Amino acid sequence: MPESITVNGIAVDAADWPSPQLAAVHELLRQRAQALQLLAEGADAQATTEAIEQLLAREVGVPEPTPAECRRWYDAHLPRYRNGELVHARHILFQVTPGTPVPAVRAQAERTLKELMAQPELFEQRARSQSNCPSGAQGGQLGQLQRGATVPEFEQALFNGVQLGVLPGLVNTRYGFHIVAVDQRVPGEQLPFEAVRERVAAELRNAAERRALGQYVRVLAGQAELDGVALDAAASPLVQ
Fold first, then answer.
1. Residue 10 — φ and ψ, nearest 5°?
2. Taking the mean position of all CA atoms in its chain, how far away is CA 44?
């Protein structure tokens, strides 16, 4: 995997990002914000983030879901809308921060996952010695978790399945790479549509936003000169 890429002649160090695609997307959006005079040359990271948010609010339209769409989504995803659904879980975090050599961190996480799939009894020991999360001091224990208590990528890994034990793949979030073990699942009770109507609408709105952002980035990428990276629908999430 290349550690640097070029976007419209501007070199980008992909080593500071979880993937080259994310690095390229961020640079595309930064350049677009500058072209629209939303961002000054040489602006710092905070100003860049704010300008990109302003850019997306201006140029990416997100349709409001209809009541019928909300109802269809609810009926097709009933397990998402349960009261009292809990997961007892542990994790080991291999943190990714600006300047972190991402390929090396991923490789270490993959080695540890392979070891724990073969010897799950070592999970607590590895969490204490390797995890970058404060929970490492408790062997990676996260306790009881409900939907909405963690970032979406982590929640999906916890709740969209029935498996117990060490999950077979790394979970990639904005914080880094996680090894996750699910110790217990409590199914809870089904909530009626009326009780979760607003939540369903918000989830559909977020999904529509992700699709619109992906399309917007593909348009920008089609107009750009890219070297060392290819952008497609997999280039989400868009903003770190």
1. -100, 125
2. 24
- Please check the confidence at residue 239 and state whether its pLDDT lies above 50: no
Could you say which DSSP state residue 119 is in? Answer: -
The encoded tokens of residue 163 equal 């498996």
Task: Give residue-wise pLDDT tens across range 62-79.
Answer: 889 999 999 999 999 888
Token pair for 20 = 């080259």
Residues sharing a CB contact under 8 Å with residue 206, sequence separation 6 or more, in sequence order: none
Decide: 167 and 181 in contact? Cβ < 8 Å: yes
Going from N- to C-terminal start, the domains of the chain cover: 4-64+197-227, 84-190
Whole-angstrom CA distances from 232 to 147, 218, 225, 226 are 30, 6, 14, 12
| CATH code for the domain defined by 84-190 | 3.10.50.40
pLDDT-derived band of residue 16, with 50, 70 and 90 as boundaries? Answer: confident
